[in-house]
Amino acid sequence: MELHRKFVISNEDNYIYSKNGGVGFNAYTSNDVTNYQILLPANRLEIWAKLESDRLKNPILREYYTERDVVLEERRMRVENRGLGILREKYLDAAFPEGHPYRMPVIGYEKNLGFLDLEKTKTFFKNYYDPQRMVIAVVGSLDFDKTEKILRNYFGDLKKGSLQPLKKTTQAGFNGSKFVSVVHPSTPSKIIGFHKPAFPHPDDAVFSIIDTLLAEGESGRLYKKLILEKQVAQGVYCWNGDPGDRFSNLFSIYITNNQNADQKKVENLVQEELDKLKTELITSEELFRIKNQILGGYLRALDDNGKLADVLSLYQLLYGDWRELLRGYEELDTVTPEDVQRVAKKYFVPENRTIAELNPPAKGAGN
């Protein structure tokens, strides 16, 4: 370990970017994609192209085991030592069938990470870091022809591999209510989720409306009911598209309970609000306000070059055309109060539901 440090300059790429005005050099991995991003002055695009194309053509994993240990420690901190991390892992494991990619945690399991060696990682890189899977999005004050020339010059000769097919999956859900319980010395919490289709299915836009209606800010129905009125929770939020968008996914409701709140009471209060959507139409004024709220969030995100590049590349990669982003706005605009009622009746049913709850150990347990 000490010997290799004599031959390695850690974070050299970050240093080069910083010298050339780069900021925000980062990466993330979701259930659907791995994304690398950087903000640079427009006249430094070629430096980025040279560095990143070389990384793809000639990957040298010099600090592999150091980085693997970092990931292992990150898993311990984010999952094993946090009640919500464990609960969410158990929740997705219960919600999706055996072999479904959304059942697997993005960070991996400790038992697998500990035995992941360099050769296996190189094979994975060769199979999946393929130009046929790659999308580059460049946003900024750029000359199109010059930009295209730079990209073709540096990335045009990337060798295509034998493309590994993505794992096929069938839509989960409507196969019985599922329940999982976790005991952990953390704040009591609950996740309630329902299977749903992913974008571009038109019902996905309806779930975006329901998401905002229930839990967006202090005006959200669940926020008012659970936190302000009944005072049984300290936090609630919804996630439409949990945990990803490539396959059919979940509409999830995450609740952090107050310490002495009854779990069943919290569940019943949530169900009451969901049932209201089945029996009472939301008003046109309420729907108009929610649509404007969602659209405003979209526009604010697209006003940032980095976020716009992120969204464009994601839509191109997942749906084959970045213009699907515009279709999403159009779908949202067509949602009616009757659509909200129809979707609530169809999906918010016990046979399509997964519930996961976390409780701290009983007092005196283990003593």
UniProtKB/TrEMBL annotation:
This is Peptidase M16 inactive domain protein. Gene3D superfamilies: Metalloenzyme, LuxS/M16 peptidase-like. It comes from the Bacteria. GO terms for molecular function: metal ion binding. It comes from Leptospira interrogans serovar Pyrogenes str. L0374. Pfam families: Peptidase_M16_C (PF05193). Belongs to the peptidase M16 family. InterPro entries: Metalloenz_LuxS/M16, MPP/UQCRC_Complex, Peptidase_M16_C. Residues 117-293 form the Peptidase M16 C-terminal domain.
